[in-house]
Write a structure and sequence with these properties.
The complex is a heterodimer.
Chain A: E1 5-11, E2 15-21, E3 23-27, E4 32-35, E5 42-54, E6 61-73, E7 76-81, E8 84-86, H1 92-108, H2 114-130
Parallel strand pairs in A: 1-7
Antiparallel strand pairs in A: 1-2, 3-4, 3-5, 5-6, 6-7, 6-8
Helix pairs in contact in A: 1-2
Chain B: H1 4-60, E1 78-84, H2 94-111, E2 115-121, H3 123-133, E3 137-141, H4 151-166, E4 172-182, E5 185-194, E6 211-213, H5 216-290
Parallel strand pairs in B: 1-2, 1-4, 2-3
Antiparallel strand pairs in B: 4-5
Helix pairs in contact in B: 1-5, 2-3, 4-5
The chains are: A alpha+beta, B alpha/beta.
């Protein structure tokens, strides 16, 4: 018997994906983690990176997300993302653009927020390697 | 009585006004549909965001340690009123109804000796409030270059608002906008953005204990700016839809009034034409009789 659970990936401007999936690989703020059926309820923030999930026998689907929040509750998973692009459509330039955007902000802000932005930059560069 | 030529000119001018209002009404109707669609698309995100925040809140409630964004804002002194209006006029009472609500709130707060600051979104609100409350202004957001409202715009506004909050410029933020009830009815409303209080809605998942990663405080610091951006986004979207709805109704009215005016003027015109003809006939007949 294959266990599946509900997944919805929602961005502020539209619904990106909705359906039943077997597993999701999430780029969590602290580290990547895998969500399988009957996962304990949790809320976690997501760093920029690739969200991977498989609907069943077919190939994995991959989305590039630029940070967001995931909520797991009673076998239903909601991922709220700032923006999501399907993995095969992502262009490396997009990520490079994001990096330069962060660089601009890095030079503009004071030291307090610098750590956050620096981390974000690292995440983006990591994602660029995977793309 | 105006001459025939004067009447003719007036009829033509009202006719071209009617053409313009008719066109504006149709443009507003098309834009309204688009605005409603995009508001519709953004709704699942906003709803889910609210769910997560209230789930989070019910878990945090039990934990000591105050987050800076949380509170009920009861004994605060400094208020920031964000007045969201349109960039354009000619949309009935849309702008002035928001301004009116904001003004009554300003009066209420100043009578309680609270400090009030104003930030406006959209040109029309600034114009109307500037006359009376210029010294209270701390900022203005110009949307005239934004054809459609994007989440990025909302994020920028919310970042500005949050950094002002962190700097201690104000303690409570309220936003004023027109709620979109239906095409013909928009309700001026206000909504408290900051600090976030959770007493409004009891979540149904309050007995589920969540694992947090990283800890609650960090997630709150991450999610609250996001949820504020989302709130601003949905407020701006509702406002955009209300503006178009309001303009459509106003222009529909104007078109109808112009039609009535044209009918009336045409009757006047025909009557004076007939009077002129009768006059001429009388002159001819009496001239013939005299011979």
């Amino acid at each position: 018997m294959t266990n599946k659970f509900e997944l919805s990936v929602i961005s502020a401007e539209s619904k990106v994906f909705e359906g039943k999936v077997e597993s999701i690989l999430v780029p969590g703020m602290v580290g990547d983690f895998l969500v399988l059926p009957n996962h304990a309820p949790c809320i976690s923030s997501i760093r920029p990176g690739f969200l991977e999930f498989s609907e069943g026998t077919s190939d994995k689907q991959r989305y590039f997300v630029s940070g967001g929040i995931i909520e797991v509750i009673n076998n239903s998973v909601s991922v709220l993302v700032d923006s999501a692009v399907a993995g095969d459509k992502i262009v490396k330039d997009d990520i490079t653009n994001l990096i330069s955007e962060v660089n601009d902000r890095l030079s503009a802000v004071d030291t307090i927020n610098k750590d956050d932005l620096g981390l974000r930059k690292n995440d983006l560069e990591e994602a660029l390697k995977q793309a | 009585m105006p001459s025939l030529k004067d009447l003719k000119i007036r009829i033509d001018s009202v006719k071209s006004t009617r053409k313009i209002t008719k066109a504006m009404q149709m443009v507003a109707a098309a834009k309204l549909r688009k605005a409603q669609e995009s508001a519709e698309r953004g709704r699942p995100y906003a709803e889910k965001m609210r769910d997560i925040v209230s789930n989070l809140a019910s878990s945090v409630k039990n934990i000591a340690g105050d987050n800076k964004f949380l509170g009920d804002g009861s004994d605060c002194k400094k208020f920031l009123l964000i007045v969201a209006t349109a960039e354009r006029g000619l949309c009935g009472g849309f702008n002035s109804s928001i301004v009116k609500l904001a003004k009554s709130r300003i009066a209420e707060l100043t009578s309680q000796n609270k400090e009030v600051k104003i930030l406006t979104i959209g040109k029309k609100g600034r114009e109307q409030l500037n006359r009376e409350f210029e010294r209270l202004f701390i900022g203005h957001v110009d949307l005239s270059n934004e054809k459609n409202i994007t989440i990025d715009t909302a994020r920028k506004i919310s970042m500005d608002i949050i950094s002002r909050f962190e700097d201690g410029e104000y303690e409570v933020a309220e936003i004023f906008y027109n709620k979109f009830a239906s095409v013909i009815s928009q309700i001026p409303s206000s909504y408290k953005l900051l600090p976030v209080s959770f007493n409004e809605k009891e979540s149904d998942a309050s007995n589920v204990s969540f694992n947090f990663e990283p800890d609650e405080d960090e997630i709150l610091n991450e999610i609250i700016p996001k949820s504020i951006a989302t709130s601003i986004f949905s407020v701006l979207q509702e406002n955009a839809a209300s503006e178009q709805g309001s303009r459509m109704a106003a222009m529909d009215n104007a078109t109808r009034n112009a039609g009535e005016m044209i009918d009336k003027l045409t009757i006047d015109f025909n009557r004076s034409r007939q009077a002129a003809i009768t006059n001429e006939l009388i002159e001819i007949i009496s001239g013939a009789e005299a011979l």
